Structures are given as structure tokens and as C-alpha cells.
Amino acid sequence: MNKVVAIIPWGxxxxxxxxxxxxxxxxxxxxxxxxxxxxxxxxxxxxxWSPLVLAPSSTVRQVERLTHAATGAPIWLVPGYSSxxxxxxxxxxxxQWRATPLRAFRQVLRQERCxxxxxxxxxxxxxxxLVALGRSLRVPVFATFQGGDRTLSRVERLIRARSIAEAxxxxxxxxxxxxxxxxxxxxxxxxxxxxxxDVQEWRPFPPAEARAALGLANDTFVAVTHGRIDIHRKGLDxxxxxxxxxxxxxxxxxxxxxxxxxxxxxxxxxxxxxxxxTNDREFIRRWLSAxxxxxxxxxxxxxxxxxxxxxxxxxxxxxxTAQGLADMxxxxxxxxGLLFPSENVAMLAAAIGxxxxxxxxxxxxxxxxxxxxxxxxxxxxxxxxxxxxLHAALDRRLAS
Length: 400
What we know:
By secondary structure, the protein is of the alpha/beta class. The protein has helices at residues 15-18, 25-31, 35-46, 89-99, 102-112, 125-137, 154-166, 175-184, 207-214, 231-234, 236-242, 258-265, 281-290, 306-312, 325-329, 345-356, 359-376, 379-399, and strands at residues 3-8, 49-57, 64-67, 74-79, 116-120, 141-144, 169-171, 190-191, 222-226, 248-252, 271-274, 293-296, 317-320, 337-340. The strands form two sheets. The protein has an eight-stranded mixed β-sheet, sandwiched between helices. The chain has a six-stranded parallel β-sheet with strand order 11-10-9-12-13-14, with helices on both faces. A hairpin with a 6-residue loop joins strand 3 and strand 4. The two termini are 20 Å apart. InterPro entries: Glyco_trans_4-like_N.
């Protein structure tokens, strides 16, 4: 049996995610890979499923099918519009429900004969609409936790508990979020499955070779971070406040706050910003391999993939106690990095200083980080867990 699962990413339209990082839907299909979305695609394919990505788009006028170059998975785009405005939270939630193109979604799901839906984040109105759609099609609906952890409006609270009770499962790797969900939604089915990473592709270059290619001196201490430029969410203001040198802090990425970041880094010595949201994995691998430490100062996270890429390349990670990061860095077994309390600039600076001064500790943490990624976050490990979760739901559906 061809087992088809549709993955529906965040946003009223896919451009809500793509526009801030300067990508189009066609660049998404041709150039993008990795991240939680395509990590899930690869893991599901590994488990024998046929995943597809299904998203509304403000750039199409009719249903359009693209093919993801890296995995061969279909990307279905349906006409949609952004509901963003200045309405009250409850009115905004109603707008988001109405913006969900259920008729077009139904058309694609029936055409592809989907067996399951997998939605990014459950604390949003589109999830409620998709649970209702799944009910009408008799298709189980799952949702992942990628950082959306708060019901924002009164009207959502009236319906969210029922939606979560009807969902076939919530995939939550962050322990604090699992505890919150257990307290808020007693009928939730929760699975602890992390985001996956391709450990065969994400492996380090020889550090000296990487430094030579990037023009870095061998004795320069280098701290690095990469991803979307969202200053508040990613805590980039905190990181810049904590960084005093000596050495070089390298920021790689672009996004909606790029102009503000440009002002913040202007004139700063010891800070290099590479203003691009790149899909070139070799480029990122080279910077990770050339660096001494990876820093994630996020205020808000789900289960971020970027620190996993750093750990796979043998880097020790300094991370805040934001969702997901703590689960990576405080997992059972040998330490793989250093945690600091979220928004505590002094303790972040102290953690950077500690690893700057202790190369042996950096090597030990980086070695254990690579081992942890191989054991828990590999495509194969996540594929097995997702396959078991999806089949259990299908079995329940057949038995009912």
C-alpha cells in the first residue's frame, strides 16, 4: 500500500515564512533542504511513506504541483491569502480560520489519497480547521511542536481543547511543552520524537582545512550562529550584548529584522555578519567546522535544527533554557554543551568565556555532541519513531 502523508507548514500562506528570508516558492522547491520540514520528508521516506508538502500560497491562482529537487516529494500549492491585520486576537483567529482553503486542501488530499495529515504547530487556528477537515475525510491529523506554544485568543480556547482531543497525536520533543500540554489538555496524545538530521551529510571538515578556505587564522577564537534573523525570538540582541571578544563572532543568516541588525552590528569590531539565508550546506558545514563554539541565545524555540547541525559537525553548543535547547543540552549521558538561563546576558558571557579558555573542554563536548546526534536525532532513528506513531493511529482508525 502506498502510504501518503501530507505535511502542512506554518502560515496563512507559505510566503509568511518565505518572504522574510527572501525566497520564492520555486526556490523552496529547487534549492531548500533540511530544516524540520524536509527533515520530516526524508524521515518519512526512509520509513516507507510517501510524504508531500501542502501549503496555501499568495502567488498562485490555481492548484499547482511542484517537485522538491532534493527529495522528489511533491509540493502542492493552493491559492491562499494572508489574514494578518490589526484586529483583536479573537477576530484575528476567526480571520485565520476563514483563510484556511479547506476546499482546495480537500481536493489535493483526495487526489493524492492521503492517509494522514501532519500540521506544523497546534496552537493556531489553521490546526482547528484541519482537524475538522480530517474528521470529515476520516483521516488522522497529527501536529508537531516547532515553537508555537500559546493560545492567543479567547475564541481559540473555546475550540482548541476539542481539536487537540480529536487529534491523533502531538509530536513534542521539548519536555517543558509536554508538561504544559499535559496540564492544559488532558486528552492529548503526546509523542516524544525529535526533529531529524542527516548525520551522513552533516559531518565536519578538517578544522585547519576549513579555516584556510575561509581565511581564518588558526589561533582566532570563533563563535558562530546561523539561521533566520529574528532578533527577539533568536535572542541576537542578547548575544551581541554578551560578546566582548577577544576573537570573532560570526552571524550567518537573513530575515525580517535584517535592517535592524545592520544597525546593531555597524562599527562593531570582532563581529562578522554574513547577510544571506543560504541553502548551501557545504558553506554552513565549512563555517561550523572552522568555529570553536556554537551559540544559540533564543528566547523562543521549538526543537531547533541549527544547533543539531553544529553538534553533528563536532561543535560544543552554548544554549539558552528556551524550549528544545534544554532538552538537547541537558539530556542523559555525557554533557554536550553549556546551558544558561534565557535572557541572562552575564551568564551567557561567562559560558562563552569558559569555552574560550578551555580548548580541551570544547573538544570533549563536541565529541559527545556528535555521538548524541548519531544516536537520537538521525534520520533512521526518527523514521522508526514516526512510522510506529502513524501506524498506531491507522490501526486505531481501522478498529473504530
